[in-house]
C-alpha cells in the first residue's frame, strides 16, 4: 500500500513540476496563471468568511 501512495505522490508532484516549468517558459501564460490562482484564493477566502 505504501508503494502506491509513494507512486501517486510522486506523480502529482511531477505533474505540478512539469506544468510549473511550462508556464515559466511562457511569460504571458505565467502571468495569467498567477492571476487565476489569486482569484481562486480570493473566492476561497470569501467563502470561508461567509461561513463564519
Percent helix, as a range, is over 70%
> Roughly what fraction of the amino acids lie in strands?
under 5%
Radius of gyration: 16 Å
The major beta sheet can be summarized as: none
Order of helices and strands: HH
Q: What's the average pLDDT?
A: 84
Shape: flat
Which structural class fits the helix and strand makeup?
mainly alpha
- How far the N terminus sits from the C terminus, by CA atoms, comes to 39 Å
- Report low-confidence residues grouped into runs of 5 or more: none
Question: How many runs of DSSP E, i.e. beta strands?
Answer: 0
- What is the overall number of helices? 2
Give an overview of the whole structure.
- The chain is mainly alpha-helical and 52 residues long.
- The protein has 2 helices and no strands.
- The protein is flat, with a radius of gyration of 16 Å.
- 0% of the residues are buried.
- The model has no long low-confidence stretch (mean pLDDT 84).
Q: How are the SSEs ordered, and which strands pair?
A:
Blueprint: H1 2-25, H2 27-51
Short description:
The protein is mostly helical.
What attributes does this structure have?
52 residues; mainly alpha; 0% strand; flat
Amino acid at each position: 500500500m505504501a508503494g502506491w501512495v509513494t507512486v501517486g505522490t510522486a506523480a502529482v508532484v511531477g505533474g505540478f513540476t512539469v506544468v510549473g516549468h511550462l508556464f515559466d517558459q511562457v511569460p504571458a501564460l505565467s502571468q495569467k496563471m498567477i492571476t487565476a490562482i489569486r482569484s481562486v484564493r480570493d473566492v476561497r477566502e470569501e467563502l470561508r468568511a461567509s461561513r463564519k
